[in-house]
Fold:
Amino acid sequence: MTVDLAEYAAARRTALYRTAVLLGCPEQDADDLVQMTLTRCLRHWGRVQRAENPDAYVYKVMLNVFRDSRSRRWHGELPTEVIPERGAEDPDVAAALAVRRAVAALSEEHRAVLVLRFYADLSERETAQVLGLPAGTVKSRTARALAALAADASIVRSKA
Amino acid sequence: MITEAEARELLARAAGMIEVPAGTPTLLTPRQRPPWIVPLVAAAAVAAAVVAGLVFADRGREPAPDPAPSPTGVKLPSVFGYRADEAEKMLTALGLKVEVRTGYDCADAGRALRTNPGAGTQAAPGDPVTLVVKQAPPGLCGGDIRNLAWAILDFADGRGSSPSFADEVTVWVDGVRSTLTRQQAQDPATWGADSAIGFFLAAGRLDPGTGFSSTVQPQLRTEQDDYAGDFVCGGQEWPEDPLLDGRKALWMDLAVPSNDPLPCVFLDVFTTGSSTSFDPSGQIDAVVLRTWRRPVAQPSAPTATGNPTVSGREVAQEFLAFAEGSAPAPPFADQVRLYLQNEHVRTITAAQAADRSSYDVVDACFPDPEADCPRSAIDMLNLMKDRTIREGFDECLGGALDLLDGSEIGSDHRTVMVRPSVGDCERPWAVQLIYDFEGRIAKVNLRIPETH
Structure:
């Protein structure tokens, strides 16, 4: 099956944008990150299409572009500071904000593994490929990341 | 402990409140036709023009702007390579309502990144356009290799001073090696649209208005490090040159918004100073360009059979000085054809061409015949002091004015134009000179807005 990039971008843009923000990219830069990721992928689009999971390939590119740009980036602005305070009275919004803050407060390693596994919906093996880690490391890191998230008292769990 | 299911739900909830801006340039709306067909054709046109030795790219000979108020308006130019203030000026001059969006980032400090809507989009005066620029946080970025990357592009674009070159500069363009003296390398005219750096710029401005913009990713490595032979640009192997072995380059990777054939454009710049790392303060001693353009052959395009002994810039400078009366007549061909709006008006002899009063081609100006009315190319150059010489692909004029091209130029001639500096795109004009390889001017084309 062939998917052209226009279709892919139209279908996945929202998810890519949100993944970018959850991974720690400031919102004002997320657009650029998504665009750079897609233009990169376009270069290798044939290879992306042939990949077992094109999403995994795209996320890998996104992570590389993000790390690459951030290594030269001004570090004065922490991701947590760009999370808006709007609608804090609404309990749902407040809960969602709490999760975002908690995710932003995680270590980069933990954040990446959680976002890729549970938001981008990649398998352990795919996550390992994206992060360039052994699958076993992803497994243990996921467990530690979940524990770290659970330790954040501000998170309201739905079943609590 | 949080279960995996809970983690999914929490993240989905958090993601749900991340507002994704609507209609941003990254959104490729589904179309009947894949949008990159457009840039590909444009890329092929430029590649063909470059192969043909033409020094500007015709944009499909679009009709000149309608003198009456037109709903089509102007085509948004590419802001690639421009500083933020230059890009804003250029867009404002087109009558657009420019909103500047700034992000802090050292990476592209002070540079225009893209517009929304994207380059190539039709816009009418008064339309809003968002210009995305990057601003450096004060005092935090320091010297960045990107500054050098942009300085090199600015220089080739005729908008900046020369970077530091070594005594001898080795240039590889798609497998063809040449050497330049320092003096040659320091002349921006050396780096026209068919050169290593000029091609990079021209390719960067091929924005099709599909929402993608070209971006540059300068990095300190060679492409060999990155792709390890996995990705070969345009079928071009990395040049076998002992001069380049084991050295790190300032590698500028242009992401062109086009799909297939893979539109890679890689520019590697090497400096003296260190044999193992890259020294941004060293002198440039090697430049390697690799592009996808070679496979794009256009058999119908005329092929240059030689090389000019003078640059277009020199030809234009001499003609300008002559027009202003500050220099004697430049060399002319035996017959000089005069054009108005790309239409041949009459032919004068070389002797007549040496007389500045021989160039009148305009009978009357409307609506105000008494206003500054350029009767000739000579008049135009004297009226317009804010001008620039262009040999390369020209975005400002490319969307607004077509010029003599292809068969009118011929394979044994080249063309150069004098046109307004950046910011004067709303009343585009151009004086186009066509000259032979000895620098003799054979055709003079005056191009003015129809409303002038």
Notes: The radius of gyration of chain B is 24 Å. Chain B touches chain A through 58 residues (CB under 8 Å). The CA atoms of residues 329 and 354 of chain B lie 5 Å apart.
